[in-house]
Amino acid sequence: MTFGTIFSFYGNPGSGKSTLCNAKLRKTVFKSGVSVGTGLTTFSESHQDGNNLIIDSPGLADPIKRNEAAKQIESSLKKVLNIIDNIDYPEVTLESGRVRLQDVETLNSILKAITVEFEYGLIINKVTKQVHQHLLSSPANLQACIQMVEKQPLRTLIVKHMSELYDEDNVLVEDKETLDSLNGFLESLPRNFIEQKDVTTVEVKDYDKKVKEMELLMTKLTEQIELEKENNKKLGEKTLKLEADLTQQRLESKESTERMMNQILDMNQKQIEQTAEFQRNMQEQMRLTTEALNKPPVIIEKGGSGPCSIM
Ligand SMILES: Nc1nc2c(ncn2[C@@H]2O[C@H](COP(=O)(O)OP(=O)(O)OP(=O)(O)O)[C@@H](O)[C@H]2O)c(=O)[nH]1
Ligand SMILES: [Mg+2]
């Protein structure tokens, strides 16, 4: 018998692995639902789907079942050769649940157990509307979210939180958009060839310690981010004040320029009026002079008593 691709889903309890496996199969094969205190899936289970094999697995976050879960995951990574005799290079595609610090550590433990080159896809599941917008608004936001994953995924799929699944048992995803994007995503991932010898122990000895270390690091990072935010806020306020001052100065200088322009216009107007007045005076003066010149001369006779004309 020949298998096509093995799709293995890994992630912590309650992250939605069984639900996603069922969504891929379009039927409720794996039990999904709420399990208080521990994971619902405690053993790796597989289901044949045509030529493909779908593997559901338990998570590592539960401290009581952790060692057993690690063994289950390890054997699921090696499972291919246990169950298929006539295939030399099995094909494996890895998935993972949403990213919390525990999820990051689970992911890191599994990724470290594979000693050959491989690519995998990461599914960030049950993402609320606001976080969904935040993650999609910039690649940097998504990067910040998965920066602690030691081997970065080739691709990441962000699946919106589906309220109809909340707190439910064995519910099949019906949302077409989610189903299409899940199938498209799974098909888009390259196939890896991982042999049994390429898988070592899934190490969970220091699981809690590492999660604590990450928590500390995250706290420091968050503090740094807060500090930077505060500085940026102050810088922003300063810039706004400077801009306001500059606008005020521009306004004042515009007003004083206008005042000066008006003064110049006034002066020009006065000069025009003065010139006109001067011209009027000159004309009057000339008129008077001309009038005086055009008057007949007055002859005063010597010893005479009245004027007489000159012939
Ligand atoms: N709100 C919401 N609930 C979801 C979503 N996906 C799964 N669930 C619910 O979450 C619960 C856990 O889902 P499972 O698929 O059983 O999770 P799991 O990762 O297989 O969990 P374990 O087997 O315990 O490791 C179930 O009640 C699901 O109906 C989702 O996208 N949104
Ligand atoms: Mg499960």
Automatic annotation (TrEMBL):
<protein>
    <recommendedName>
        <fullName>G domain-containing protein</fullName>
    </recommendedName>
</protein>
<dbReference type="Pfam" id="PF01926">
    <property type="entry name" value="MMR_HSR1"/>
</dbReference>
<dbReference type="InterPro" id="IPR006073">
    <property type="entry name" value="GTP-bd"/>
</dbReference>
<dbReference type="GO" id="GO:0005525">
    <property type="term" value="F:GTP binding"/>
</dbReference>
<keyword id="KW-0175">Coiled coil</keyword>
<feature type="domain" description="G">
    <location>
        <begin position="8"/>
        <end position="95"/>
    </location>
</feature>
<feature type="coiled-coil region">
    <location>
        <begin position="204"/>
        <end position="238"/>
    </location>
</feature>
<dbReference type="InterPro" id="IPR027417">
    <property type="entry name" value="P-loop_NTPase"/>
</dbReference>
